[in-house]
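Sample A.
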Amino acid sequence: MKKIITTTNAPAPIGPYNQAVLTGNTLYISGQIPIDPKTGNLIEGDIKAETKQSMENLKAILTEAEMTFENVVKSCIFVNDMHQFSEINEVYGSYFNADTAPARETVEVANLPKFVNVEISMIAVK
């Protein structure tokens, strides 16, 4: 049985998918890009601000599912320029305890939705 997780504190999906799906104790969060859910506008021009907005969107979805970043077991970061890795990593890392951080991969891609610079998805377990 799956339960759809939705919050107005994260951007609405821009395609035929949901913000997150909870099945059993496992939450699968769709990739979040730097859209401000209050305005619907993209955060652009500063990779740290873009990463922070993506992480805040993920945080809102985790909160709606009654979880925190401590529940995250796997993250996937997609970037369009691996040269920005250290700046993205700095912001991303501030949301986790280094000793209990999740497994992760970071992948450089040609393009992302709305041509953003970063997209992050997560899997969390209660």
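Sample B, a different protein:
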Amino acid sequence: MDREKAHRFDTEFAPRIVERIAALLDSDVSIEVIAHEGARLPTRVRMFAARTGYARAHAHPLDLSLTWDDGEIERLFSAGGEARFVRYLDALPRKLTAWQGARDIDLPTRSQADSTVLVGGLDFEA
């Protein structure tokens, strides 16, 4: 992906993902955009928090990163990309639930089975 599109994703789209996820979670979860640094270090949205509550589902505190497929990001800049992205934002509550089950993450207790989790190669399908 070229630098201009990567920068546009970092500044135009990723902050909206952060905003949507933040609206779904409590303020004790920190969410940040880690900017694109080249082919081996794509844009990441990272969620992290200390574990909460007495019943902790997993051994490690929340430290989850999301990355998207370069081709999927490129598609956001073509016809219909904005509408597709809006549908994706609307689907994020369901996607967060699915990622929890697939990756041994427990958002209510802010815990996970592994010390860090990467959910990568994501698409923008609703």
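Observation for Sample B: The mean pLDDT is 92.
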